[in-house]
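Apologies for my clumsy wording, but can you show me some protein sequence, whichever is easiest, together with the matching structure tokens, please?
=====
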Amino acid sequence: MKVRPEKLLTEIKIRASGDLPSFWWMQIACWSAYCLVLYLTILPFVTEEGGHLNVLLLKVYRSIFGFLLSSFLRLFYQRIYDRGTSQGLPLRSVFAALIGSLVFGCVWGAAEKLYWWMSKTDFDYSHAIASYPRVAMGYAIVLFAWSALYFGIKYWSNLRTQEEQLLRAQLEMLRYQINPHFLFNALNSIRASVNEDGNQARRMITQLSDFLRHSLVAVENKEISLREELEAARNYLAIEKIRFEENLVIEYEVEEKAEEFLVPYFLLNPLIENAVKHGLRASPKPLKIKISARLEGKSLILEVANTGSLNNSPNLTGTKIGLKNVRERLEKLYGEKGGFELKQDGEFVVAKIEISKAEM
């Protein structure tokens, strides 16, 4: 699937501009509409003088109490979301809505009887007790409808948030998947090699093609084998080697069993790109780059080292963004089981990644 950055940006902006109003504004609107509907439906049956005002006050009282009870219900429902993962959440939400609506419906019904007891001198206790279950059930149905609306909006809002996060993650990936300067330099090198060395130009075209295929086609894969990542890294560095010739020395120290370890796609390239940029500006020639991978127990140790010094590192904003993205991706995918470190080790600046997994 081809992902276009401008399309992702447009979708993110649309979703951001379509954010839902705050809960309290929706709460006010919901119960105001409830009050209006109740009043308009009973209005044709009011015949006594001054009865319209009394009916309005009663409906306002009911709506205010519904507003307060549903606000307390929201606190109860929020705890449902705070517990555990989303697995089984719809069933728990329905169960919570049933229980909450019944309990608060009974409270609402009791509050209405209290209102009548305080406002009428001829309050009929027997009739109030007999009609209480029906009244409480009616209010429970109203609160259950409110609960269904609440959970529906909540799920929809969460879905929009997840989709927006996915779009932003894809956009983040595209930001550092391909360095445009590398692409332009590679094409210029190929152009210069066409007349001088046709075989070398063809090799560069093949390597560039394989590298681009890895960086673009693999967008949908969450993890790939380290072997595939290393293949893309070799294609990238092969092109850089042709450009810088004897000024660039590359070494690989990769355990064969480590090549089967699954890693996030396009994990190595930001580290290698940083090593080349930083090393060429801060290291005496030739620049030496070492790529190593080994297993320690159930953990993969992946290192990209380049000659140079962190203290003499130039302000390379682009590479800083790339390293920041690597750190954030590891944190999102593995939490405490994924780590990133940039350190000085003798004459080398080492970017070290450690990924631990329960199963291999």
The chain has a mean pLDDT of 78. The first helix runs from residue 5 to 17. The two ends are 29 Å apart (CA to CA).
